[in-house]
Amino acid sequence: MKKIKPSAVIGTLACILFIPIIIINLVIIFNGFSDSENIPGFFGYRMNIVLSGSMSPTFDAGDAVIIEDVDNTENLQKGDVITYLVSGKATTHRIISVTEHEGKVAYVTKGDYNNIEDRLVVYPDQIQGIYKGFHIPKLGSIMMFMQSTQGMMICLGVPFALYIVYDLMMRRKERQQEHSERDEQLKEKQRLEEELAKLRAEKQQMEETD
């Protein structure tokens, strides 16, 4: 059975951990530039990073919540958890009542952990999507770190460093293997020369006897 090298395992784990997150980050950043007035998303889903504990224990600060697009934002119900924008900032809170404000449908929201409702009502055109229970604990913190200068350096530098270490180890192993093969060849050559010398000596002895 072929032995699995620790360096190969480390490299594979680094790829599994970092590459998907890097790709997600790149997609989110690209979509953010193409549509700066909405939360970036794709295939009907958006990801929002939770910045506070206002919805604990439903989800906590640093989690990433997945929200789904809503066809009709004027038909949401009490109890729905929605993500909406206020001055470009995303908030994910629960609808506690549906009302009407200035002739338009409006939603009164509140964080599950908060004691009081949100100060401003939410209008349908502010809503980015609805949360249906799927979130990834602490992924938001990881993504925020990876978007920082230090995080980008680590995420790009660690796989590259692992590749360099792996490459150096493979080169060293190849050199050791070449040296080992060369030593074996020298030993084999020496053995053949000794046998040949022995055969010559035996032949010479036989000729002298005759």
Query: Average pLDDT value?
Result: 83
Biggest pleated sheet? 7 strands, antiparallel
State the end-to-end CA separation.
58 Å
Q: How large a portion of the residues is in β-strands, by DSSP E?
A: 15-25%
- Tell the overall outline: rod-shaped
Instruction: Classify the secondary structure makeup into a structural class.
Output: alpha+beta
Q: Please report the total strand number as a whole number.
A: 7
Q: Residue share in helices?
A: 40-55%
Mind explaining what this structure looks like?
The protein has a seven-stranded antiparallel beta sheet, with helices on one face. Helices cover 47% and strands 23% of the residues. The protein is rod-shaped, with a radius of gyration of 34 Å. The protein has 210 residues and is α+β, with helices and mostly antiparallel strands. Helix 1 (6-34) runs antiparallel to helix 3 (149-209) and helix 2 crosses helix 3 (149-209). A hairpin with a 2-residue loop joins strand 4 (81-86) and strand 5. It starts with 5 loop residues before the first helix and ends with a helix. The chain has helices at residues 6-34, 139-147, 149-209; strands at 41-42, 45-49, 64-68, 81-86, 89-101, 104-110, 127-136.
Key traits:
47% helix; alpha+beta; rod-shaped; seven-stranded antiparallel sheet; 210 residues; 3 helices
